From TrEMBL:
Protein source organism: Pleomassaria siparia CBS 279.74
Lineage summary: Eukaryota, Fungi, Dikarya, Ascomycota, Pezizomycotina
Entry coiled-coil feature ranges: none
Protein known as: ATP phosphoribosyltransferase
SUPFAM superfamilies for this protein: NIF3 (NGG1p interacting factor 3)-like (SSF102705)
Alphabetical list of InterPro entries matching this protein: DUF34/NIF3_sf (IPR036069), N-reg_PII/ATP_PRibTrfase_C (IPR015867)
Length: 112
C-alpha cells in the first residue's frame, strides 16, 4: 500500500479573515493528521508584519496604490495529506481570502 505524500501549506492573512480561511482549508481536508489520534484542524499560527506596495493596476484590500503598506498579518501553517488535498485547500483558500493576490506556499515534505 502506497503512503500518501505530505505537504505543508503556509499562508498569510489579516486577523479578521483567519477564521474564514481556516474553515475553508479545513473543509477541504487540510489539517488532518493520519493515525489513531484522528487529529483534525491542526495548525500553527504566528503574528508578524507584512508589507507591500500596490502597483497602478492593483485593487488592494488594505492600503492604497503606490504607497508602501506595513500591517499585522498572521502566518498559518498546516499539513495536507495527499496532493489532491493540497490542491483543493489552495483552491478554497483563494476563494475565502480577502486579498487580490494571496501569499501562500506549498512545500512537499519528506518522511524520515
Amino acid at each position: 500500500m502506497a503512503t500518501l505524500q505530505k505537504f505543508k501549506l503556509i499562508y498569510f492573512v489579516p486577523s479578521a479573515a483567519v477564521a474564514a480561511t481556516k474553515s475553508a482549508i479545513f473543509a477541504a481536508g487540510a489539517g488532518r493528521y493520519p493515525g489513531p489520534g484522528d487529529y483534525t484542524e491542526a495548525a500553527f499560527i504566528t503574528k508578524g508584519t507584512g508589507q507591500f506596495r500596490a502597483g497602478d493596476a492593483a485593487n488592494p484590500h488594505i492600503g492604497k496604490v503606490g504607497e508602501l503598506e506595513e500591517f499585522e498579518e498572521l502566518r498559518v501553517e498546516t499539513i495536507c495529506i495527499g496532493r489532491d488535498v493540497a490542491v483543493k485547500a489552495v483552491e478554497e483558500l483563494k476563494k475565502a481570502h480577502p486579498y487580490e493576490e494571496v501569499a501562500y506556499e506549498v512545500i512537499k515534505c519528506e518522511d524520515i
